[in-house]
Amino acid sequence: MAKRSKACAGAALFDEALIRRCLVFYTSVAEFLMSTLTGEPPGRIPLTLPLPQEIPKVFASLPEWYVEDIAEYLLLALK
Fold first, then answer.
1. Which of 20, 27, 38, 43 is deepest in the core (most CB within 10 A)?
2. CA end-to-end span of the chain, whole Å?
3. Closest Cα to residue 67, out of 18, 24, 34?
4. Per-position DSSP letters for 31-75, written without gaps between them
5. Prediction pTM value
6. 47 or 9: which leads in pLDDT
């Protein structure tokens, strides 16, 4: 049973359509995070550096695992 589960998980991880949909999802999450940080609407965010010194309360209240999840998925996709 464990071998079958591992094979199914491996097949799903290499599905191009699933990878593409996940990248679209994580792109939208990153746009949401940037919009809460900069106050600009999602999708039209001109990234200007440096970022604001004062962190908006909405952004500060978000859990840090949002960013960790994006980073972990990108590392998985690159492997």
1. 38
2. 25
3. 34
4. HHHHHHHH-PPTT-----SSPPSSPPHHHHTS-THHHHHHHHHHH
5. 0.73
6. 47
